[in-house]
Write a structure and sequence with these properties.
This is Glycerate kinase. GO terms for molecular function: glycerate kinase activity. Keywords: Kinase, Transferase. It comes from Mesorhizobium erdmanii. This protein has 421 residues and is α/β, with parallel strands linked by helices. It folds into 2 domains: 177 residues, MOFRL domain (glycerate kinase, domain 1, 3-Layer(aba) Sandwich); 232 residues, Rossmann fold, CATH 3.40.50. The protein has 16 helices and 12 strands. The protein has a 6-stranded parallel β-sheet with strand order 3-2-1-4-5-6, with helices on both faces. A 6-stranded mixed β-sheet has the order 7-8-12-9-10-11, sandwiched between helices. Helix 12 runs parallel beside helix 13 and helix 13 packs across helix 16. The longest helix has 18 residues. The chain is globular and about 65 Å long.
Length: 421
């Protein structure tokens, strides 16, 4: 097999996946018709500033608008204002952004058009506590969710029941204007109502569903939050509400499309590719162990796939915090993977978040192979102890295997690529 350097090959796979979700390409194909009245662009998410810049370039007509993205993820726009706020834990800048977005869509008419540019990360960027709750309450909810190990769908069902902007409420505020939502999905299964907790897309997740998830994952939320979720005031708008009857929702990029592009790039370089799933969820370290078992089976028995092969998967794993180390779900996945393939030659892997950031550090993920654990040991790092302490970033940093592409301008969840040579 004439593969280039494994890291270079895996980086090219990542780049192909990200390019397939490039907003300049995807937004051009989903432009709504021009309205009689005003066109107002709103948005939230880690890819929403780049979406706004792409929309400005493609739109033939007057526009105004406001989009919120993560600090450092801005893009240059002429007519749409870009503001930045904190992610993954909300801050006061996000609170002000939510207030201004709600104000931006008030007082519109049926002749006006609202274009909503929504991508992953919008949940944290749009804190807007329900009456009787505070920003501190919403921060406490977010921190509990991030540490709980709950899947993203459960998290966002809870989030929308403590908010005045999520769960379709932003679109309801814009009524009677038509709202067209252009969504970049980072959600396993691609339900647009769950991306960024659906500020413009309602769903049928109920207060009872939220309470069931809080109980199932043992979350400890403030008493004020629990009292609110237990009251009818927390109910989110129904998808049957007439305020949503004219609206449109378009999924313009997703993990599935990006994985297909990654597979095409692998085949272009002479490596067959298989896609396990674009919707894998579960505890990151456990998913890492499963991927490692598949890779070992291919390496030693040439089944269920023939080598050489690139094994791809997408979705969003979770991390149940056991300690206060540095890391993220992709680096934790990979550390468990590295431990499980220790000593196995010709297995190389990259796991990375397609938005360019894994957790709270500046890396998207990391690289691992059969020599990772021994190289960590030589650097004075115990891989198993680091995994136990949720300290995967520190482990990979010690051997120079962090993957740092920088912000990508899109977000279609995680890409896991395992090369068996």
């Amino acid at each position: 097999m004439t593969v280039l350097d494994p890291k270079s090959f895996l980086t090219a796979i990542f780049n192909a996946a990200v390019a397939a979700a490039d907003p300049e390409r995807t937004i051009r194909d989903h432009l709504p018709a021009r309205p009689k009245g005003r066109t107002i662009v709103i948005g939230a998410g880690k890819g929403s500033a780049q979406m706004a810049a792409a929309f400005e370039k493609a739109w033939d007509g007057p526009i105004e608008g406001l989009v919120v993205t993560r600090y450092g993820y801005g893009a240059k726009c002429e007519r749409i204002e870009i503001i930045e706020a904190a992610h993954p834990v909300p801050d006061a800048a996000g609170l002000e952004a939510s207030r201004r977005l709600l104000a931006k869509v008030q007082g519109l008419t049926a002749d006006d058009l609202v274009v909503a540019l929504i991508s992953g990360g919008g949940s944290a960027l749009l804190p807007s506590p329900a009456e009787g709750l505070t920003l501190a309450d919403e921060i406490a909810v977010n921190e509990a969710l991030l540490a709980s190990g709950a899947p993203i769908a459960a998290m966002n069902t809870i989030r929308k029941h403590v908010s005045t902007i999520k769960g379709g409420r932003l679109a309801a505020t814009a009524w009677p204007a038509k709202v067209v939502s252009l969504v970049v999905s980072d959600i396993p299964g691609d339900n647009p109502a769950l991306v960024a907790s659906g500020p413009t897309v309602p769903d049928r997740g109920s207060r009872q569903d939220a309470l069931a998830s809080i109980a199932a994952y043992g979350m400890k939320l403030p008493a004020s939050v629990m009292a609110h979720i237990n009251a009818p005031a927390a109910d989110a708008p129904s998808p049957d509400d007439e305020r949503f009857s004219r609206n449109e929702v378009h999924l313009i990029a997703s993990a599935g499309v990006s994985l297909e592009a990654a597979a095409v790039e692998a085949k272009r370089q002479g490596i067959e590719a298989v896609i396990l799933s674009d919707a894998i969820e579960g505890e990151a370290r456990e998913v890492g162990g499963v991927h490692a078992a598949i890779a070992r089976e291919v390496a030693t028995r040439n089944r269920p796939f023939s080598k050489p092969v690139l094994i791809l998967s997408g979705g969003e794993t979770t991390v149940t915090l056991r300690a206060k180390g540095k890391g993220g779900r992709n680096s934790e996945f990979l550390l468990a993977f590295a431990i499980a393939v220790n000593g196995q030659e010709d297995i190389h892997a990259l796991a990375a978040d397609t938005d360019g950031i894994d957790g709270s550090e500046n890396n998207a993920g990391a690289f691992a192979d059969g020599s990772t654990v021994s190289r960590m040991r030589a650097a004075g790092v115990d891989a198993k102890a680091m995994l136990a302490g949720n300290n995967a970033w520190t482990a990979f940093n010690a051997v120079g295997d962090l993957f740092v592409p920088g912000p990508t301008g899109t977000n279609v969840n995680d890409l896991r690529a395992v090369l068996v040579r």
